[in-house]
Design a protein that fits this description.
Layout: E1 5-6, E2 11-13, H1 15-20, E3 24-29, H2 53-66, E4 74-75, E5 85-87, E6 109-112, E7 118-123, E8 127-133, E9 138-144, H3 146-150, H4 153-165, E10 173-176, E11 186-187, H5 189-196, E12 207-211, E13 214-217, H6 219-230, E14 237-239, E15 264-270
Helix pairs in contact: 4-6
Bound molecules: zinc ion.
The site of zinc ion has 6 residues, from loops.
InterPro entries: Cu_polyphenol_OxRdtase (IPR003730), Cu_polyphenol_OxRdtase_sf (IPR038371), Cytotoxic_necrot_fac-like_cat (IPR011324)
Protein name: Purine nucleoside phosphorylase
Pfam families: Cu-oxidase_4 (PF02578)
C-alpha cells in the first residue's frame, strides 16, 4: 500500500505513522492550494527560490492552519546538500519560518524529542525521509539528494540516535516520501559511482544503464538499502512509489521544471496541547 495518502488538496499524510502515534503530525505538501503565481504556482513553501516572500509566508500560514500546527512552533533550515544533522530544541522555534536569514544554517537533517516543535525541510525531487523511535519519542527528518545520499546522511541520523540517544535499531521506523524516480532521473558515471559506493548491494537493485554512461536511478531505493545495511529492520521501512516528476498535477519538480520551480515541504512534529 502507498504510505503517503492525499489528505486534502494541500498535503499528503502518513496514515501508518499516525497509527503508531496519533499525536504525531507528519506529511508532505503538494503544489496546490497556495497563492504563488508563475513558476511557483501555487503552494510554494521555499523562501529561497525567488518567489515573493510574502506569498511564501502566506502559503506557510495556509499549510499550518490545515495541519493545525502554528507557524510559531515550526523550525526551517538552509539546506546545502551536505550531511549536517542538527538536534533541535524549543529554543530553535521560529528559526527560518518568516525569513531565510534566521534558518538553521547548512542543515539537511534535524531531529528532536521536544514536543510542539515542527521540523520542516523543503523538496523538489530529492528524497525526504521521516524517522520515528516510539520508546525514545524521537522524531527526525532528512533531505537526501544524490550528494546527501553519497554522504550517507540517511543512515547518519540512525547512528546518532543509537550513539547519542541510546535508541535501539529494532525500534526505528522510517517513511520515505515522494521523490524523483528512475522513470525520470537520469544521471552520469560520476553520480552513479558516488552513490553506489555507499551500499554493498549490486547496482541492478537501484539503477539501470539506459545509454552508454547514462543511468536511470532511484535514490529512494539506495537510501532504503543504506538503512537496512545500517541495521534498521526492513519491515519498519515504508517507501512511497510516487515520482515528483511524473506527478505534475501534484508536485513541483526541479528537473522537470528546468530548475525554476517551487518547493514542497516535509514536516513532522509531536503535538501536545496546542
Ligand atoms: Zn517519473
Amino acid at each position: 500500500m502507498e504510505p503517503f495518502q492525499l489528505r486534502n488538496d494541500l498535503y499528503m499524510s502518513i496514515p501508518l505513522l499516525e497509527e503508531l502515534n496519533p499525536s504525531i503530525v507528519a506529511g508532505f505538501s503538494t503544489k496546490r492550494g497556495g497563492i504563488s503565481r508563475g513558476d511557483f504556482n501555487s503552494l510554494n513553501l521555499g523562501l529561497h527560490v525567488g518567489d515573493e516572500q510574502q506569498s511564501v509566508r502566506n502559503n506557510r500560514q495556509v499549510l499550518s492552519e490545515a495541519i493545525e500546527f502554528p507557524l510559531s512552533n515550526w523550525v526551517c533550515a538552509q539546506q546545502t546538500h551536505q550531511d549536517h544533522i542538527e538536534k533541535v530544541t524549543v529554543t530553535d522555534l521560529q528559526k527560518g519560518v518568516f525569513d531565510e536569514q534566521s534558518a538553521l544554517s547548512s542543515t539537511d537533517g534535524m531531529y528532536t524529542n521536544d514536543k510542539n516543535l515542527m521540523l520542516t525541510l523543503c523538496f523538489a525531487d530529492c528524497v525526504p525521509l521521516f524517522y520515528y523511535h516510539p520508546k525514545k519519542q524521537l522524531i527526525g527528518l532528512i533531505h537526501a539528494g544524490w550528494k546527501g545520499t553519497a554522504a550517507k546522511i540517511s543512515r547518519k541520523i540512525v547512528s546518532e540516535w543509537v550513539m547519542k540517544e541510546g535508541a535501539s535499531l529494532n525500534d526505528i521506523y522510517v517513511f520515505i516520501g515522494p521523490s524523483i524516480k528512475g522513470c525520470c532521473y537520469i544521471v552520469d558515471d560520476r553520480v552513479i559511482t558516488s552513490v553506489g559506493k555507499t551500499v554493498h548491494a549490486p547496482a541492478q537493485q537501484y539503477a539501470k544503464e539506459v545509454t552508454k554512461g547514462q543511468y536511470a536511478i532511484d535514490l529512494s531505493k539506495i537510501n532504503k538499502l543504506q538503512l537496512v545495511e545500517e541495521g534498521v529492520k526492513e519491515k519498519n521501512i515504508f517507501s512511497s512509489s510516487l515520482c515528483t516528476s511524473c506527478k505534475s498535477d501534484l508536485f513541483f519538480s526541479h528537473r522537470r521544471d528546468g530548475g525554476k520551480t517551487g518547493r514542497m515541504m516535509s514536516f513532522i512534529g509531536y503535538k501536545e496541547d496546542i
